[in-house]
C-alpha cells in the first residue's frame, strides 16, 4: 500500500479565493503531439480501453537474453532517442557511451557468473579506517548474479546535459524581505522589465537568494527597483488609484561553473574517491523545478494541482490533492529524474467558522448557536487546530495574508483596541462603524495575528487560504480516504506518471531545460532485475521439525497443518474487557475457548483457565491512570506476582491504550495483547491465528526459522560457532505541529544464533527532532551484555541496519554512530568486531513496474500485478559508485509495491552483492507476526515498533504539552523527559511486537 507524501515544509500558493490551482495536466497529449509519424507503442504495452503512446527510448536498449536465464522476452533493440522539442545538435551531451551502458544484460549475467569466484577473492580492502577519514563504502563487484532475470521499468527518466554548458550563479537580495510567493512575482517582473540587463536570459530562481542563468548578465552587479500591487505598512505609492509596493533588487555574480566534474563522476573517471559535484547538480535540479513551481502548489519536493483529478473532501476540514514528486539523481546510467505520483492533504479553503465545525466535533452545529462560548479546554483545542494557518479577510478587498498566532484571552464582545489617535474602541463597534457589519459570534475569541502586538481579527470574517498543507495528525477515516486516492495498481500508476512527465505542469512543460541544454527522456528507464529464490523454512510438527518452501506467487505460507517453530506455555494469564455491549461481553467465554484451541493447533499452550474470572470494566477506566494500575496489580497478585499475559478486549480504539502499555510494561511487568470487540464477532480463524502468533512472540516463542542456517548459506562470513548480531536502529519524531516533545530512539539486536530471530530492545528519549542517536553507545553496550548472557560469547560480526536516514545525513550519521558502536565494543577488552553499517530507506519514490511484453502469455500472468517478492535491482538506477540496491521482498496486495532501498555506508565484513542481498531477503522471512515475507528487514522493522512503543510511553504527557496556551514569544523546548524504565523480565521479551 502506498504511503502519502510527507513533508514538513510549508506549501506554496495562497490565493484569495478558493479557486482551482493553476496548471492542468493533459494525459492525452504530449509535447510532440503534432508529430504523429514518430509515435509507436513501446514494448507492446496495451490496455482494453486505450493504448499508451510513448516516445522512443533515450538510449539503445539491451540485446536479447538467452531463454534459460530470462523470464520475459527481451526489449526491442536499437531504438534511438529523438526529440523535436529539445536540442538536436549537441555533441557534448554527457551520458555513458553505448559500450559503457550499465544495463543488466545477459552477457553480463554470464560474465558475472564466470567471474563470481574471482569477485569473492578480490574484494577491495578499504584504505580509510580512521574515524577522521570516513568514506562511504564502494560497490564491491559489478553486481549480483543470483536469481532469474526479469524485465522491468523504473520511474527514472534519463537527463542528458552538456558538460561544457556554463551556469552562472547569482546572489539576489530583495529589500524589504518578501515571502517566497512575492519573491517569485518579483523575479517574473524582473525578467519582463529588465530583459536587456539580463542579456535576454530566462534565469531560474530557487525562491530564496539564488538565481541561475545559462548566460552571463551584462554586469556582475545589478541594482533595480520592482513595483508590485501589494499593500503594506511601508514604502507605499499611489499610482492610478492602486497602492503599490517598491522592492529594491540587488544581484551580484557569485560563481560560474560547468558540468565537467559531474560528467567525470557519472562516468567514473579520475579519482575514485571524488565527491559528487553538488553545485552543478543542485543548479540542474532548480532548472527542472522552475516550471512546476510556477504552476503548482509546492510542498517539500512535491507539486500539487487541482487539475490532476480535482480535490477530494476527506473530512475534518481537509481536502486531498493529487500531485507528483520529482528529484534529480545520479545513477549508473547517468543523471535521472525520479518522478512519482503523490497525494497529500491540505486545509480546505473555507471560512474559519465552517472549518472549525468540520474539524472539531464539539463545535458541530455552532452556526445555529451563535451565542455559544468556549470552555478553557475547548479553547486550547481550537487554538491548536488554527495555529500557524494563513487566512485572508472577506470584509474588505485586499491581497494581504495573515498567519494565526493564537487566540485572544477575551471574547470578541469584550475586546477593545487603541486607534492611532489613542482612542479606545470596542471591536464590535469598530466593525459596525467602518464596515457596517454586525459581528455574530461575540462569545468566541478573535484571532491574534501578531506575536509582538495586539492585532485582532474576528473568526467569522476570515477565510482559510488555499494550498496550505495539512500538518496535523490525520484521523483514521482521513488516512483511509487519502490512502485510497493514492492506491493505484502498477499499470494505472505507470500511466499517471507517464502523463505527468509529458503533461502541462510536469518537469518538461517549460522552456528552461532547453535554455540550459538539458534533454529529458519521456520514457521510463528499462532495466533488468533478478528474482531471488525463497529460503526453505523450518516449522514445528508436534515436536518434530518440518521444512517448507514458500512456493505460492506471493510467497505466503499457512500453518493449517503445522506448528510454530517454538511454541510457549502460558500457564498464568488474565482477560480484561473495556466497554462493550451485553451481547459482546457474553461472547468472551466462547472467545477464550476458541483462542485456546487455535493456540493448541499452532503448538502453543494457553491455559483454558484464567487466574481470575474475566474482568469487565467500563471504557472510561482507560481515562483513569491510578484506577487502571490498581486493576492490573490485582491481576498480578492473583497470579502470585507471576502473571505472563493480559489480553485486553476493547470496545473501540482509545487513547488510554498508551497508559495501559506503559503501566503494564514499566510498573507491573506483564505483557499485554489488545484486540477489539468487532474483530471477536467475526469468528475468523485467521484473526485467532494472528493473535496467537503475536502472543507467542511476546512471551518468548518464535514462529519460523530458516531451515538452512545462515552459516550454511554464507559460509565465507558466518560460522556456527561464531555468532553474529543483527542490529536495527530507528528514531521516531513527534508530528510536525509539536514543537517541544522529545524524539524517541530504539535499538534492537538478536540474542540467539544461528536462528537469529529473537530480539531484545532498548529505548531512549532524546532532544526534540534530533536524528543522531544520542545514547547509542550505552544502548548497544546493554544489548551486547544481553547477547553475552545468552550465548556466553560476544558476536564476531555486527551488521547494523539504520532506518530513517535521509541522503543528506549519511556522512554525519555514519561518522557519529559508527564511532558510538566502536565505543560500545571497547567496553570489552580487545573486542573489535568488523562492522557493516546499512541505511534502510523506505520513504523514497523509486517504483519498479513489470515490463508487459505479451499480456496473453501464461508466463506473464502476474505482469498486471506487482513485481514478485525477491525482486532485486543493483544496476542502472543505483548509485554510480556506492554499494546500494533495491529489494522488494514482499507481495504488494494493494497499490504499487515500494521496494526498500538498502545503502551500505560502511562494510568491514566485505560482503559481496549476492551475499548481502540473500541475507536481507532471507531475514525478511523470519518476522514473528506473520506467515509471509515482510517488506522491511526485520531488525529495522522491530526497531521501528520499539521506537513507536517508546513514543506511546510519552504520549499522555505530550498531549498536555501540545495543548498549552500559546505565548506571544515562543518558549524554549523543555528538558527532554526520560522514558520510564522497563521491568527486568519485560526487557528480555519482544513485548513491542
TrEMBL record:
Pfam families: ArgoL1, ArgoN, PAZ, Piwi. Residues 358-466 form the PAZ domain. Residues 1-21 are annotated as: Disordered. SMART domains: DUF1785, PAZ, Piwi. One of its GO terms (molecular function) is RNA binding. SUPFAM superfamilies: PAZ domain, Ribonuclease H-like. Belongs to the argonaute family. Ago subfamily. This is Argonaute 7. It comes from Nicotiana attenuata.
Amino acid at each position: 500500500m502506498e504511503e502519502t507524501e510527507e513533508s514538513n515544509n510549508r506549501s506554496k500558493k495562497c490565493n484569495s479565493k478558493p479557486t482551482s490551482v493553476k496548471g492542468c495536466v493533459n494525459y492525452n497529449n504530449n509535447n510532440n503531439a503534432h508529430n504523429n509519424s514518430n509515435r509507436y507503442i513501446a514494448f507492446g504495452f496495451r490496455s482494453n480501453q486505450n493504448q499508451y503512446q510513448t516516445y522512443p527510448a533515450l538510449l539503445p536498449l539491451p540485446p536479447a537474453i538467452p531463454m534459460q536465464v530470462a523470464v520475459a522476452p527481451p526489449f526491442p533493440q536499437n531504438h534511438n532517442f529523438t526529440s523535436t522539442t529539445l536540442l538536436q545538435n549537441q555533441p557534448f551531451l554527457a551520458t555513458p557511451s553505448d559500450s559503457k551502458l550499465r544495463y543488466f544484460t545477459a552477457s553480463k549475467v554470464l560474465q558475472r557468473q564466470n567471474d563470481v569466484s574471482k569477485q569473492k577473492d578480490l574484494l577491495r580492502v578499504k584504505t580509510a579506517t580512521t574515524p577522521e577519514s570516513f568514506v562511504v563504502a564502494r560497490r564491491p563487484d559489478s553486481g549480483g548474479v543470483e536469481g532469474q532475470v526479469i524485465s522491468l521499468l523504473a520511474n527514472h527518466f534519463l537527463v542528458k546535459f552538456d558538460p561544457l554548458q556554463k551556469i552562472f550563479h547569482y546572489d539576489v537580495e530583495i529589500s524589504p524581505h518578501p515571502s517566497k510567493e512575492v519573491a517569485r512575482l518579483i523575479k517574473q517582473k524582473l525578467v519582463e522589465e529588465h530583459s536587456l540587463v539580463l542579456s535576454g536570459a530566462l534565469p531560474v530562481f530557487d525562491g530564496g537568494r539564488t538565481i541561475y542563468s545559462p548566460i552571463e548578465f551584462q554586469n556582475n552587479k545589478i541594482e533595480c527597483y520592482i513595483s508590485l500591487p501589494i499593500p503594506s505598512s511601508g514604502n507605499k505609492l499611489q499610482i492610478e488609484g492602486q497602492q503599490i509596493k517598491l522592492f529594491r533588487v540587488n544581484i551580484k555574480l557569485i560563481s560560474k561553473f560547468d558540468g565537467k566534474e559531474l560528467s567525470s563522476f557519472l562516468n567514473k573517471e579520475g579519482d575514485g574517491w571524488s565527491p559528487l559535484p553538488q553545485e552543478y547538480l543542485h543548479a540542474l535540479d532548480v532548472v527542472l523545478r522552475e516550471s512546476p513551481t510556477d504552476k503548482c502548489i509546492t510542498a517539500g519536493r512535491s507539486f500539487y494541482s487541482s487539475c490532476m483529478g480535482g480535490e477530494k473532501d476527506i473530512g475534518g476540514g481537509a481536502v486531498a490533492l493529487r500531485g507528483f514528486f520529482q528529484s534529480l539523481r545520479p545513477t549508473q546510467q547517468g543523471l535521472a529524474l525520479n518522478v512519482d505520483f503523490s497525494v497529500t492533504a491540505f486545509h480546505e479553503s473555507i471560512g474559519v467558522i465552517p472549518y472549525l465545525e468540520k474539524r472539531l466535533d464539539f463545535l458541530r452545529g455552532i452556526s445555529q448557536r451563535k451565542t455559544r462560548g468556549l470552555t478553557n479546554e475547548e479553547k486550547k483545542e481550537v487554538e491548536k487546530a488554527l495555529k500557524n494557518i494563513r487566512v485572508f479577510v472577506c470584509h474588505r478587498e485586499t491581497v494581504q495574508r495573515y498567519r494565526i498566532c493564537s487566540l485572544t484571552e477575551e471574547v470578541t464582545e469584550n475586546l477593545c483596541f487603541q486607534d492611532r489617535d489613542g482612542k479606545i474602541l470596542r471591536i464590535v463597534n469598530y466593525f459596525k462603524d467602518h464596515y457596517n457589519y454586525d459581528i455574530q459570534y461575540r462569545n468566541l475569541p478573535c484571532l491574534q495575528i501578531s506575536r509582538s502586538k495586539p492585532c485582532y481579527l474576528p473568526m467569522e470574517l476570515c477565510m482559510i487560504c488555499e494550498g496550505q498543507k495539512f500538518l496535523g495528525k490525520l484521523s483514521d477515516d482521513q488516512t483511509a480516504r487519502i490512502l485510497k486516492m493514492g492506491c493505484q495498481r502498477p499499470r494505472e500508476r505507470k500511466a499517471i506518471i507517464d502523463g505527468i512527465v509529458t503533461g502541462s505542469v510536469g518537469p518538461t512543460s517549460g522552456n528552461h531545460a532547453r535554455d540550459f541544454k538539458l534533454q529529458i527522456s519521456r520514457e521510463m528507464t528499462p532495466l533488468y532485475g533478478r528474482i531471488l529464490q525463497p529460503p526453505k523454512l523450518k516449522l514445528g510438527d508436534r515436536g518434530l521439525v518440518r521444512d517448507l518452501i514458500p512456493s505460492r506467487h506471493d510467497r505466503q505460507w499457512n500453518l493449517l497443518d503445522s506448528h510454530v517453530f517454538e511454541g510457549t506455555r502460558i500457564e498464568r494469564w488474565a482477560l480484561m474487557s473495556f466497554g462493550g455491549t451485553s451481547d459482546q461481553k457474553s461472547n468472551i467465554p466462547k472467545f477464550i475457548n476458541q483462542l485456546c484451541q487455535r493456540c493448541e493447533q499452532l503448538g502453543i499452550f494457553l491455559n483454558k483457565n484464567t487466574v481470575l474470572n474475566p474482568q469487565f470494566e467500563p471504557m472510561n477506566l482507560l481515562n483513569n491512570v491510578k484506577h487502571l494500575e490498581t486493576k492490573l496489580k490485582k491481576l498480578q497478585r492473583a497470579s502470585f506476582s507471576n502473571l505472563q499475559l493480559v489480553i485486553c478486549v476493547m470496545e473501540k480504539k482509545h487513547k488510554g491504550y498508551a497508559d495501559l502499555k506503559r503501566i503494564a510494561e514499566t510498573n507491573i511487568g506483564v505483557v499485554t495483547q489488545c484486540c477489539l470487540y468487532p474483530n471477536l464477532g467475526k469468528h475468523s480463524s485467521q484473526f485467532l491465528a494472528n493473535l496467537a502468533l503475536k502472543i507467542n512472540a511476546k512471551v518468548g516463542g518464535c514462529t519460523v526459522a530458516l531451515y538452512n542456517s545462515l552459516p550454511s548459506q554464507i559460509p565465507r562470513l558466518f560460522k556456527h560457532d561464531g555468532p553474529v548480531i543483527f542490529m536495527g536502529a530507528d528514531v521516531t519524531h513527534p508530528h510536525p505541529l509539536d514543537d517541544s516533545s522529545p524524539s524517541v530512539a530504539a535499538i534492537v539486536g538478536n540474542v540467539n544464533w544461528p536462528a537469529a530471530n529473537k530480539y531484545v530492545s532498548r529505548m531512549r528519549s532524546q532532544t526534540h527532532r534530533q536524528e543522531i542517536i544520542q545514547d547509542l553507545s550505552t544502548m548497544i553496550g546493554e544489548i551486547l551484555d544481553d547477547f553475552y548472557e545468552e550465548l556466553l560469547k560476544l558476536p564476531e560480526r555486527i551488521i547494523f541496519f539504520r532506518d530513517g536516514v535521509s541522503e543528506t545525513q549519511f556522512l554525519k550519521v555514519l561518522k557519529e554512530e559508527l564511532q558510538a558502536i566502536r565505543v560500545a565494543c571497547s567496553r570489552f577488552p580487545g573486542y573489535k568486531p568488523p562492522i557493516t553499517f546499512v541505511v534502510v530507506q523506505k520513504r523514497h519514490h523509486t517504483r519498479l513496474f513489470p515490463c508487459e511484453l505479451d499480456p496473453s502469455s501464461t508466463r506473464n500472468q502476474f505482469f498486471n500485478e506487482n513485481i514478485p517478492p525477491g525482486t532485486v535491482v543493483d544496476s542502472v538506477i543505483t548509485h554510480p559508485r556506492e554499494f546500494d540496491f533495491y529489494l522488494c521482498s514482499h507481495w504488494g496486495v494493494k497499490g504499487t509495491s515500494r521496494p526498500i532501498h538498502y545503502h551500505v555506508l560502511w562494510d568491514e565484513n566485505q560482503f559481496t552483492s549476492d551475499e548481502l542481498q540473500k541475507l536481507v531477503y532471507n531475514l525478511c522471512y523470519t518476522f514473528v507476526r506473520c506467515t509471509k515475507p515482510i517488506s522491511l528487514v526485520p531488525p529495522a522493522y522491530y526497531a521501528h515498533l520499539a521506537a513507536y512503543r517508546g513514543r506511546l510511553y510519552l504520549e499522555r504527557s505530550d498531549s498536555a504539552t501540545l495543548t498549552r496556551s500559546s505565548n506571544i514569544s515562543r518558549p524554549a523546548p523543555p528538558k527532554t523527559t526520560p522514558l520510564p524504565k522497563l521491568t527486568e523480565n519485560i526487557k528480555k521479551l519482544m513485548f513491542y511486537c
